[in-house]
Amino acid sequence: MQNSLTCREFVEFLADYLEGRLSEDQLARFNGHLAACPSCVSYTRSYQDTVRLGKSVLPRREEPVPGDVPEDLVQAILAARDRRP
Ligand SMILES: [Zn+2]
User: What's the gap in Å between 73 CA and the centre of ligand 1?
Assistant: First the structure.
C-alpha cells in the first residue's frame, strides 16, 4: 500500500489521533496501519493506559492529607479511658 504508514509515523500520529486532530486522510492511514500491525495496537493500548493513569493520579493528590490528631482529642480520649471502672 503506497500510503501506508511506517510504525514510526504511526507513533507520531498517535497523540494527534487521541486529541482528534487528524485529517480524514491521516485518520484513514492511521486506522489502516492499526488494522495491519499488532505491535502498534498494543502500543496504542499502553499509551492510552498511561494517559488514563496520569489523569487519575492527579486528583488523588489534591485530597486533604489527614493532619496529626489534635492534642485536645487525645486528652479527651485518655480522660474517658481513665474514667472507666
Ligand atoms: Zn506498526
Answer: 61
